[in-house]
Design a protein that fits this description.
The chain is mainly alpha-helical and about 160 residues long. The chain has helices at about 1-10, 10-35, 45-70, 80-85, 95-110, 115-140, 145-150.
Length: about 160
């Protein structure tokens, strides 16, 4: 029973739930946009902005994932500087930001009111429900070094 409980409280499990919220709310937004067809923009001037967001988000997600793999190679005593690599110097949740910007860009390109609204909702749910748990797990795992990193990188 304890092994099951430990398994449920991993960083990856928490992140998977967070990403699932994005996926489910994205699908809800798409369905509502098909049903109600509300439009936000009345011309195509925002389409390049949406494409810019897609490209920016893709780069951010790839950068965060590559940097995250590099964390596993740390064998020495941890300090806050070990966590401050790549996009993690600017935000503690770069993949979450990337996913948010990616779906927001998609919503802008398709002029989908509900996709944009539900993307914003998914970000707040993810940030305030799952990221707190994510950070508690990392603070338990890495101790004072991670807590110091959290103090340095607020965003």
């Amino acid at each position: 029973m304890e092994a099951e409980n430990t398994k449920k409280h991993t960083v990856h499990h928490t992140l998977a739930h967070s990403y699932s919220v994005y996926f489910v709310l994205f699908l809800v937004g798409v369905v509502l946009d098909i049903i109600f067809d509300f439009k936000i923009f009345h011309d195509v001037v925002m389409v390049p902005v949406g494409f810019f967001f897609l490209i920016l988000a893709t780069i951010l997600i790839i950068w965060a994932q590559k940097t995250g793999r590099d964390f596993r190679q740390i064998c020495q005593e941890l300090t806050a500087e070990h966590f401050c690599r790549g996009p993690y110097c600017y935000t503690r949740i770069p993949t979450q930001w990337g996913l948010f910007i990616l779906l927001l860009g998609f919503g802008i390109i398709t002029n989908s009111f509900f996709v944009i609204i539900f993307t914003i909702l998914a970000f707040f749910i993810s940030k305030f429900v799952f990221m707190g748990k994510h950070e508690r797990i990392l603070a338990e795992k890495y101790g004072q070094a991670y807590i110091e990193y959290m103090r340095k990188v607020k965003f």
